[in-house]
Write a structure and sequence with these properties.
- The chain has 517 residues and is α+β, with helices and mostly antiparallel strands.
- It folds into two domains: 251 residues, Jelly Rolls (Sandwich), CATH 2.60.120.200; 149 residues, Trefoil (Acidic Fibroblast Growth Factor, subunit A) (Trefoil).
- 13% of the residues lie in helices and 32% in strands.
- Strands 1, 8, 10, 17, 18, 19 and 21 form a seven-stranded antiparallel beta sheet that branches. A seven-stranded antiparallel beta sheet has the order 5-9-20-11-12-14-15, with no helix packed on it. A four-stranded antiparallel beta sheet has the order 27-26-23-34, with no helix packed on it.
- A hairpin with a 2-residue loop joins strand 32 and strand 33.
- Helix 2 packs across helix 6 and helix 4 runs antiparallel to helix 6.
Length: 517
């Protein structure tokens, strides 16, 4: 969290201490048993008198006794589907089942199952008033994490991706009270409308002020903002992103950038609150707690009870973000219950899932050094800050922090083939190395299959006998090559200048090195 909110967080921690008796009672587990394995957030909400009516997660069970599926994936090779469940009741996702089922092809997430028993599953969002559809489905491999040391995958929402349920059971309507929380990747966002999770219209249209109540995360300033440059946790109440009592700037809503972010929203008759915290440690801060906006339509509210993820109520689908888990409740949760839920979340042990550095294992950070002598053995593959092109340039211990970061990549399972690789920029979350007209660029994933193909490369023994070469998955005769210090996908001979056979083998061979950043 930013420095300006430190004092509020300290006050929140004191509040957690003041409610320790309740939290301790809600979190009590059998002796010698992991707290996270015996109780989930929805057990805590139920104990607080505000039971979950929707509970979605691709990473873990949200009830201590839950032992059903978390989500479903569909693979591209034959359109077969598989439910991904848990390693044990109340435990963590069986990511190995996904890895095995999707090996050698790509997979998308088709269903996020509701663990509450209400049947409020999330599936592919249809067209809406703001944009056509159906929306894209999330690539199943694009948001790897670990939870309590167990591998799992989040829901990576690229622009154009969205999930929805317009026919729900038990979700608040009208001015009925409700609460919700979600865990997001605090580094993956943009200013597009709208990366939401929560209550929305049942017809995928904008039906007016107060017809939504959903968590928003991003740095869109068009309808509201908080202090700093964002991103912010705000409430999407339809025709307004609210960071406080009314639209516009509200200084008490801080910029937040925790890698794993807890965001909370609750609303009832003429009352609503916005809270947040680091999902890995500490308590919750209250960003707003007070009356409903005084503009027409927000008091009383007109909630309709659909559930959305990654999009706005009218299917505005230009935002990006990553979702790991979230719930919606019946009734207005107390701060004490939310504090207990936050303690459960921090105990869950979310981590970025890095497997180390300097290897081609997904999760590893690397730099790629050219091998062509004598010109380029001190040069590394990097993105150019002047534009979005990918080039090679000298990088060493004296290079600037920016240059080192530009020459560092995060290895990901291949977006179009999980047995191959994709490379995400270490300093520009959500942007990947991809080819376009055979030249390499750093580009934001748009969720389309063509992007996944262009951003996937299969490692092979170095064409020169040294290091590793990277074969384009959709143009298998072409490999990542540097030519005149610019990066391309190139074949050994062809009509393009960068297909020249001169030094092709060396130019397409790379040493996988320790990351500069």
């Amino acid at each position: 969290m930013i420095g300006s909110s430190i004092r509020r967080f300290r006050r929140a921690l004191l509040a957690v201490g003041a409610t320790a008796a309740l939290s301790a009672g809600l979190l009590t587990a059998a002796a010698g048993t992991s707290q996270a394995a015996t109780q989930g957030p929805c057990d805590l909400y139920r104990a607080g008198g505000t039971p979950c009516v929707a509970a979605h997660s691709t990473t873990r069970a949200l009830y201590g006794a839950y032992n059903g599926p978390l989500y479903q994936v569909r693979r591209a090779s034959d359109n077969a589907t598989r439910d991904i469940g848990l390693l044990s009741a109340g435990g963590y996702a069986d990511a190995a089942a996904q890895d095995s089922f999707c090996a050698g092809t790509s997979c998308v997430i088709t269903v996020l199952y509701d663990q509450s028993g209400k049947g409020n599953h999330l599936t592919q969002a249809p067209a809406g008033g703001a944009a056509g559809g159906p929306d894209n489905l999330a690539n199943a491999f694009e948001a790897p994490v670990t939870v309590a040391g167990h591998k799992a995958y989040g829901v990576y929402v690229a622009p154009g991706t969205g999930y929805r349920n317009n026919n729900t059971n038990g979700i608040a309507t009208g001015d009925q009270p409700e609460g919700m929380y979600a865990i997001f990747d605090g580094t993956h966002f943009n200013d597009g409308c709208c990366f939401d999770y929560g209550n929305a219209e049942t017809n995928s249209l904008d039906t007016g002020n107060g017809h939504m109540e959903a968590l928003y995360f991003g740095n869109n300033k068009a309808w509201g903002s908080g202090s700093g440059n964002g991103p912010w946790v705000m409430a999407d109440l339809e025709n307004g992103l609210f960071s406080g009592v009314n639209r516009g700037f509200n200084a008490n809503d801080p910029s937040v950038n925790s890698r794993f972010l807890t965001a909370m929203l609750k609303g009832g008759p003429n009352q609503w609150a916005l809270r947040g915290g680091d999902a890995r440690s500490g308590g919750l801060a209250t960003f707003y707690n007070g009356a409903r906006p005084n503009a027409t339509g927000y008091n009383p509210m007109h909630k309709e009870g659909a559930i959305i993820l990654g999009i706005g109520g009218d299917n505005s689908k230009w935002a990006q973000g990553t979702f790991y888990e979230g719930v919606m409740t019946q009734g207005y949760p107390s701060d004490a219950t939310e504090n207990a839920v936050q303690a459960n979340i921090t105990a869950a042990g979310y981590d970025s899932g890095s497997t180390g550095t300097g290897t081609l294992t997904p999760g590893s950070r690397i730099s790629l050094r050219a091998t062509t002598a004598p010109c380029c053995t001190s040069h590394y593959l990097r993105h150019d800050d002047a534009d979005n092109k990918v080039v090679i340039s000298t990088t060493n211990s004296s290079s600037s922090a920016t240059d080192k970061a530009d020459a560092t990549w995060i290895v990901r399972a291949g977006l179009a083939n999980s047995s191959c690789l994709s490379f995400e920029s270490a300093d520009k979350s959500g942007q990947f190395l991809r080819h376009y007209n055979y030249e390499l660029y750093l580009d934001t994933d748009n969720g389309a299959g063509a992007f996944a193909q262009d951003a996937t490369f299969c490692p092979t023994t170095g064409n020169s006998g040294v290091g590793t070469s990277f074969q384009s998955v959709n143009f298998p005769t072409k490999y990542i090559r540097h030519y005149n210090y610019t990066a391309y996908t190139a074949s050994n001979g062809g009509t393009n200048s960068w297909d020249s056979g001169t030094s092709w083998a060396a130019d397409t061979s790379w040493l996988v090195a320790q990351p500069w950043s």
